[in-house]
Amino acid sequence: MEDPSQRLSAEEVLRHPWVQNGGPKTLLDTPLRMRRNNSARELSAFAGDAMHLNRVIHHHYSVAAMIDQVALCEVDEDHPEKYDADDEDGPIHINHIPRNNSRQFGPKLSPPGASKLAQRRLGCGKAQSLTREPLVASPSG
């Protein structure tokens, strides 16, 4: 206030109902909303990390399975008599492995760049860039 005579005195302020009663009884829900929004953000980040971890684990098991199959297919060339095509307990020659005998571990996941989410995000960016008008310098400057 510009006029000092219209300002409240310290006694008047202390007698005000807000000061006497401690303010409104209902609290603002802003802290609750902030915690809820933060929890949703953290959950989304956790889900992304979990999907990434699943891809890494799936890739690890796929590589390990291929290494196991290659190890089974290696032939000791110094002792070829050890390998009998009819012997089911011995090592398997590469020509005797069924082609569709690949092991699957966990859900079938696409590579991170080829996931549907990544494709949607790339698609959204392309669609937006196609709808924007190109920037052209005006002749007037």
From TrEMBL:
Biased composition (Acidic residues): 78-89
Stretches for region Disordered: 78-141
Domain of life where this protein originates: Eukaryota
Protein name: Uncharacterized protein
Origin species: Darwinula stevensoni
